[in-house]
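Anyone able to model this chain together with zinc ion?
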Amino acid sequence: MILIKGGTVVGPTGPYQADVLVVGEQVSAIFAPDQGPQEGDFETIDATGKYVIPGGVDAHTHMELPFGGTFASDTFDTGTRAAAWGGTTTIIDFAVQRTGEVVQDGLAAWHGKADGNCHVDYAFHMILGGVDDESLKAMDTLVTDEGITSFKLFMAYPGVFYSDDGQILRAMQKARDNGAMIMMHAENGPAIDVLVKQALERGETDPIHHGLTRPEALEAEATSRAIWLAGVAADCPLYIVHLSASKALEQVAAARDLGRNVFAETCPQYLYLTLEDQLGAPGFEGAKWVCSTPLRSKHETHRADLWKGLRSNDLSVVSTDHCPFCFKDQKELGIGDFSKIPNGIGSVEHRVDLLYQGVVDGKLSLGRWVETIATTPARMFGLYPKKGIIAPGSDADIVLYDPAARTRIGVETHHMNMDHSAWEGYEIAGKVDTVISRGRVLVKDGAYHGAKGHGQFVRRGLSDYLI
Ligand code: URP
Ligand code: ZN
Ligand code: ZN
Ligand code: ZN
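re: yes, here you go
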């Protein structure tokens, strides 16, 4: 038993003073200050001056993802350990069905990578790399038998993960019938491929051209098309991943204003980093920030609009899209050809801290911070109320967050398996102090007490977030 005493508990509706009793793997009770058990067989953790929040739920990670001739550099072991350090106690990773592969085989391969190796709990979405009769049937099986209730499709990456509009519509119709969520990588891949080819023919090979060949219009167009297609599929639930651009956000906001089941996430990189300052860094340095959708221009209103979208709930979730690649030997695959740089940024360890900055800067309330990093992702993807809330009966996934401490982000201190940090030198007001996962203390007093194998696979139900 653990009694977390003297803290400010923060839920999606805001902060309140309370003591939290953990028995075994669950939260047992929440008491008004000092009204809980006074003595007994429990460890007391002093939370005075700290926020007591539900463990973070990162609904978008790619451990060990094969991409661009290499693999994302975090394994489930290293990546979930880094997540724990950063206050994230559940990840939802993407199992992959590659084109031509049987869906269930792709899923089994992902279980093979993750099972027994995770430090925090984990669940899977399924990437459909090929929509056909077989994979449509498999969608039903995954929902009913495997606890996998969301499917990611790609309007980008022709020849790799790409689905055409007919395939997308069929998958959406299936999801409408079985209750699953369609997650969309919304960028017009065929049009992007034309721009990439033309840029390379002009000798434009530096990393910044990754961003310049993926213009906002092609994200907005794909987002709009996905929304229209979901409408044709009788308002199939649609979740736009890694939304980066103002005009894509406008499409989502307009659909939501019509009461549609359309949702979106953004990621910390789009809230802070830019095409010019990071992707456009001198020489090949910008490769560190090659991800898709790309970082957007600082001369436009993207970042301010995304923060506003988080406040208005046009953006419901912040995930990381954690997809790390080392600079040496991995990002370097694209020297002389930006299109060969593996796409992805690693930040599974920093999401809770980076979003707390929004509270410090007056852009988010405390409740909204918790809602976007924990409660809503849990609800959106069928993990609630097991995850995403501190309540009796919920898993005791709890983070003590110290607003008076500071975090300096960088390669010397992070725990991700990366030789650089996209956030090198960032100073954060606030710090993850203590991390508890299903009643087990993983991080306390700057030391790590977790172990691989503690994290369990979680079967998910259907989303309870639909309009
Ligand atoms: O650049 C990215 N986002 N890499 C991961 C794959 C994806 O599309 O989410
Ligand atoms: Zn994507
Ligand atoms: Zn609105
Ligand atoms: Zn992704």
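The chain has two domains: 2-53+394-448, 55-380.
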